[in-house]
Specification:
Length: 172
């Protein structure tokens, strides 16, 4: 099973979050996302998060792994034949948030993977331009409320979900 990370960078002074549109034919082509991607063999999830943010921002954003705050652990099931109650997930994602001022982050550039980097006021996030199901767990990432759960998809449609409060220790 593949493991991945997803990072939302929040400016604590302006209450804005940095997002970009997925540009490659991967999960979420054309949708707004935080930065992140698949974990490489032998790599910690924190190192994966830092590497992916750096790669996807064109080398502009360099995160400090110790500042990453794990908030949401999600499992995704991407076929109608899979059952979240009995089957292994297609992939797992550990979602982080990190507080950094826009002036510290720099100006991200468009890359092969992510385009149109934009700072959104949290109350103005374009939920209708995000991947179906994101509205169920991304608010918890942004608020810092530890949650764990799963989403079950078939051809982009959410079939079912279960997201519950937890403690950070439950992510281990």
């Amino acid at each position: 099973m593949a493991k991945a990370t997803l990072v939302y960078i929040i400016d604590p002074d302006t209450n804005e979050v940095l997002m970009a549109k997925r540009a490659m034919k991967k999960v979420g082509l054309g949708y707004w996302f935080g930065y992140g991607g698949k974990q490489e063999e032998g790599e910690s999830l924190e190192d994966c998060a830092c590497r992916e943010v750096n790669d996807e921002s064109g080398g502009v954003i360099n995160l400090i792994r110790e500042n990453l705050e794990p908030v949401v652990h999600m499992r995704f099931f991407n076929k109608k034949e899979l059952n979240p109650h009995t089957d292994e997930p297609t992939f797992e994602v550990l979602c982080y948030r990190i507080f950094q001022k826009k002036t510290e982050v720099g100006i991200p550039i468009a890359t092969e993977e992510m385009v149109t980097p934009t700072w959104f006021k949290i109350e103005e996030i374009p939920w209708n331009e995000m991947k179906p199901g994101d509205e169920l767990f991304v608010p918890h990432i942004l608020s810092g409320t530890p949650m764990k759960g799963w989403l079950w998809f078939d051809q982009g449609e959410v079939l079912d979900s279960n997201i519950t409060p937890c403690s950070i220790e439950d992510f281990q």
